[in-house]
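Troubleshooting entry. The earlier prediction with NAP gave an output that would not parse, so I re-checked the input for stray whitespace and re-submitted. Clean input:
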Amino acid sequence: MLHIAVIGSGPAGYYTAEAAQKKFGTDVRVDIIDRLPVPYGLIRFGVAPDHQSIKAVHKRYEAVNLTENVRFVGNVLVGRDVSVEELSQIYDAVVLATGAPADRRLGIPGDDLPGVIGSAAFVGWYNGHPDFAGLDPDLTGPGAVIVGNGNVALDVARILSKSRNEFDGADIVAHAIDRLEHSGIRRITLLGRRGPHQIAMTPKELGELGHLSRATPVVDIADFPPEGDDALLEPGMRKSVSHLRDFAAQKGPAHDIAIEFDFFAMPVAIEGDGRAERIIVEKTHLDADLRAVGTGERYILPCHLVVACIGYQTPPIAGVPYEHGRGRFASTDGRILPGLYCVGWARRGPTGTIGTNRPDGYAIADLIAEDVPRNSGKLGRPALDALLDARGVDIVTFRDWQKIDAAEIARARQGAPREKFVAIDEMIAARGTPNH
Ligand code: NAP
């Protein structure tokens, strides 16, 4: 028998468990440990609430969990309730699948003013993450600035622009949809420090901005290189750029909300009297390595909300080697040392799609097979249960989660798939009598 602990129940964690099942069959037991009482990590708290088809992948993870050899152990914080070292004594392999849930700071004067929010916090707010449910963002408007030209910037711009009806079928939480309905934001500026050919936006997500009922994307064709240069781009990027060109060519009447793309625009400071009131932007050009270089020309955008969508980082865990510059664990292809691994964003940093985590998980199962002897005598599950029980930790099982899930579905508002509980004690209360 092989005992594996996976820390984190997002896509990387579940694909690792699935891979272990496929590789080791009935000879493996996997415990997926999560600090929250609810599973699925990024799927529940990161993927946009109006992208339900992407969230449907949770059914695959559920199937993994409904087998004998995989179990979910929720409401257990590694580092507080149990250490990585203790887990390494109990399990043959420990896999850190903790994602990259922490914001990176902009690193400019004023980035700590109230009104400046990282995307992890803002996305967590509208997705009902317990850490951010109380964020209370100022949506009085009229100006909002989003820093970054990736898909998260697009998610945030779209969520800020949609009317209540456009959230039909979405699991956006009540506190967010109520606040957004009364938003005074009329101008959303997306700041890209480089140009249209350097965006990190995928075509489907960019195309969605062209179909909003009360917002119009605004793009200046003067920012583009000659159209012939688009042929040099890889096909996905070419499609994205063609969406931008379509937005630039748009002639029809503008809707109430403008989503302005400011390219070659680098934030240099955020100012205001006790809170964000304006952002100072410097125009850029690209150097020979396609890096943004300031030109010295500056302009000011008034705004009460700045959302920095500039990528994420993995929080360090005491005793685990960490690459500070890159915000992820230090490993060789996922092997931190034999018996201790990292996978997904905790290994690679925050890049790629959900599906990218699947081969990652399978590669880790291969490393475990190479490194770890079978039948080592380590006890796995019963030893963890005894340790957590002795410490009074109230674990949440997958059957408990199924009850929380049913309660969320039962209390959904009209047209929504669920109304999430946004506080840990509400989640725990919803499971009723624990199923251990
Ligand atoms: P991302 O794709 O890495 O984009 C980050 C953006 O921030 C880039 O435009 C980058 O510009 C800019 N940036 C970084 N540091 C900056 C700074 N100091 N000042 C100004 N701009 C800065 O990150 P993301 O948008 O957070 O997305 C993370 C991952 O999740 C990506 O793989 C993304 O595709 C994926 N995702 C997918 C979906 C979807 O498929 N629907 C939705 C959301 C997220 P430079 O290029 O100049 O560095």
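This one parsed fine. The first helix runs from residue 11 to 24.
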